[in-house]
Amino acid sequence: MIRLSVIIISLNEERNIRRCLLSVKALADEILILDSFSTDKTKKIAESYGATVIQKQFEGYVAARRDVESRAANDYILAIDADESLSEELHKSIVELKKNWIKDGYYVARKTNYCGRWINHSGWYPDRKLRLYKRGSGEWTGKYVHEKYMLFPDKTTGILKGDMLHYSYYKEKEHWARADKYANLAAQELFENGKTTSVFQTYFKAVVKFMRDYVKNLGFLDGKKGYTICKITAWGTYKKYAKLLELNKTRKNS
Fold first, then answer.
1. Which DSSP string corresponds to 143-161?
2. Structure confidence at residue 116 (pLDDT)
């Protein structure tokens, strides 16, 4: 049976971290948390569940993921966010996987709880993420937002049964705030990569995003919450390209 290290990055996650740790405690051989000097009870709660907490100034999501992974005592890794937890079915899948780990990495479906409602469509489910992997099989990639673990081309993957439960937003205003933050960061990344856009593309991409998530991805079946998600996500797309347009205009005029 392999030994599994669970790695987490955190900042002020006292409302979520207990649920996360309860879901992994029984299968983890080690729990490591890289915390960006939380000012709430995150560290105290985590340590009460046997987690090792390392506090370090935040230097970006990818840097944090790589840092905490490098500190793991075991080569088999489960990367989970503080606002996520394992469903009972996924927990069982990982317990069985520890007995017979075959692939280099494994994808899990992530199911999101949005303001108290589980979302089954809207482009948010199954939202598969590669969260279990053998160290050295790939690397964490990305720059400002949406970091992910990418396996090297010759590596193999599997899909586990069960869901990673994601408790994303408790209030709609939290979604608006994060959409704004991520749009600005994504625009900066596009700008630094030499990307450009136009006024037409800015509006067009936002409309396409809404139609894809609300119609093609059946967001309307998620009711009012689905409409809200698709609306804010489309606005975030608009904001990202509007910001990119602004950055390119500023550079052109400088």
1. SSS--EEEE-TT--EEEEE
2. 96
